[in-house]
């Protein structure tokens, strides 16, 4: 019986344990978590979602405070078109977050950054160009382009000296999205170094419709993508993501032709994960009926989360002067429209309003109040011990990583019981 450790993910002449820990914004996949994956010979992701805020928390910079001060006069104005990111400062935050992580890297693995392209930041092209190039400046091993994949993104960093050296990958959920991406990038003569195929059971935003995500299955999508690549004679490692919960699940994808797996949910209850301890316990305690897919994200993509997420129904004033990561190129965000509608219906005040259809994702993700999670979050309770105090024992990232790497027979190794 095979185990994950019998396989290797190859990039050129280098080999890695074929386990990637997926990017989880905002700073849920911390540097500490990514560094553990790299130390153990796999691949870890940090995320550049809301990087200025992440930098402020980690390095005591004042990007958010300064931006808030600059645009304070606009807080009551629902036209946010003038709230712009200073590209120099954005690059500085990105270089700090990524540079410090790379300096701390030890071991044979790699660190990638997950860049969600739906973070349009009131200037989609220029802010993305800045993020990507600053990530390369800071020495990141690889960049994974995700959520809202922009077909011209490779072009935005084509002039960077590391464009052909760093690993560049994309996340797709269909063979069609892959075909379009490859067609649009033909003239750059630069293929992705890896393709993450994300199925409908993943956490975060989903690349499927609100109603039809249940009709899709990762094995089938991956088989279609492998067949397409074979037909086109393209040799690109394919990484399976979404619902890979045990080492045996991973082996089933590796045996079917995947070069690796990307996993996330099982790491949400590790000590290295950035979620607050209280939220980790919510994830442990969740039952299947507590996990929902809804449309509250202003991005327009369905998102999976715990039903008890505080962000659902909250009626806070949009926080764009401080954050504004989801403002489109015209200074709008779907949450602003919902907020305006409810304020109008409430006689012009936001006192006591509840907004159900959209949420202020920046503020709530920043405060860890949007509990996005993978479908199998309800199985996390089977991966640890329930302690006498009613809490579940947190895991170490190393324990979970090695469980994926070495387990067989769908077994999940429990950690050594901590002394009370
Ligand atoms: C809490 C959480 C947050 C996530 N955030 C992001 C994100 O910011 N960007 C992204 O591309 N994927 C995100 N994902 C998806 C993961 O990177 C990964 O591809 C997927 O969840 C793997 O499936 P699994 O969670 O069943 O192991 C997130 C997943 C979780 C569980």
TrEMBL record:
- Keyword Flavoprotein on entry: yes
Q: Which GO terms describe its biological process?
A: 'de novo' pyrimidine nucleobase biosynthetic process
Report if keyword Metal-binding is assigned: no
Q: What keywords were assigned to this record? A: Dioxygenase, Flavoprotein, FMN, Oxidoreductase
Which molecular function terms from Gene Ontology are attached?
A: dioxygenase activity; nitronate monooxygenase activity; oxidoreductase activity, acting on the CH-CH group of donors
Identify this protein by name.
NAD(P)H-dependent flavin oxidoreductase YrpB, nitropropane dioxygenase family
Q: Which domain of life is it from?
A: Bacteria
Q: Which InterPro entries match?
A: Aldolase_TIM, Dihydroorotate_DH_CS, NMO
């Amino acid at each position: 019986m095979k185990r994950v450790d019998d396989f290797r993910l190859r990039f050129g002449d280098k080999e890695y344990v074929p386990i990637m820990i997926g990017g989880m914004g905002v700073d849920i996949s911390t540097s500490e978590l990514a560094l553990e994956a790299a130390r153990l010979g796999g691949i870890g992701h940090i995320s550049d979602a809301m990087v200025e805020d992440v930098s402020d928390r980690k390095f005591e910079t004042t990007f958010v405070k300064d931006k808030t001060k600059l645009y304070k006069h606009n807080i009551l104005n629902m036209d946010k078109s003038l709230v712009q990111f200073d590209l120099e400062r954005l690059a500085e935050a990105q270089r700090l977050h990524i540079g410090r992580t790379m300096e701390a890297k030890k071991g044979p693995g790699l660190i990638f950054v997950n860049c969600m392209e739906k973070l349009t930041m009131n200037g989609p092209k220029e802010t993305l160009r800045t993020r990507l190039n600053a990530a390369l400046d800071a020495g990141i091993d690889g960049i994974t382009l995700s959520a809202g994949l922009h077909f011209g993104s490779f072009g935005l960093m084509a002039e960077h000296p590391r464009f052909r050296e760093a690993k560049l990958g994309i996340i797709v959920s269909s063979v069609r999205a892959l075909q379009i991406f490859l067609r649009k990038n033909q003239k750059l003569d630069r293929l992705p170094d890896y393709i993450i195929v994300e199925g409908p059971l993943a956490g975060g935003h989903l690349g499927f419709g609100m109603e039809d995500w249940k009709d899709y299955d990762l094995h089938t999508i991956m088989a279609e993508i492998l067949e397409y690549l074979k037909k086109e004679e393209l040799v690109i490692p394919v990484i399976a993501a979404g619902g890979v919960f045990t080492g045996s699940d991973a082996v089933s994808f590796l045996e079917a032709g995947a070069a690796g797996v990307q996993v996330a949910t099982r790491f949400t209850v590790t000590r290295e994960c950035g979620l607050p301890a209280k939220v980790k316990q919510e994830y442990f305690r969740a039952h299947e009926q507590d996990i929902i897919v809804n449309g509250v994200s202003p991005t327009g993509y369905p998102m999976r989360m715990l039903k008890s997420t505080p962000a659902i129904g909250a009626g806070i004033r949009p926080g764009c002067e401080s954050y504004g990561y989801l403002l489109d190129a015209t200074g709008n965000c779907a949450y602003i429209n919902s907020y305006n509608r409810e304020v109008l219906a409430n006689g012009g005040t936001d006192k006591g309003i509840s907004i159900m259809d959209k949420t202020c994702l920046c503020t709530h993700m920043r405060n860890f109040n949007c509990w996005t999670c993978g479908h199998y979050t309800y199985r996390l309770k089977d991966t640890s011990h329930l302690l006498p105090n009613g809490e579940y024992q947190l895991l170490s990232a190393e324990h979970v990583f090695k469980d994926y790497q070495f387990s067989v027979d769908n077994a999940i190794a429990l950690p050594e019981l901590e002394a009370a």
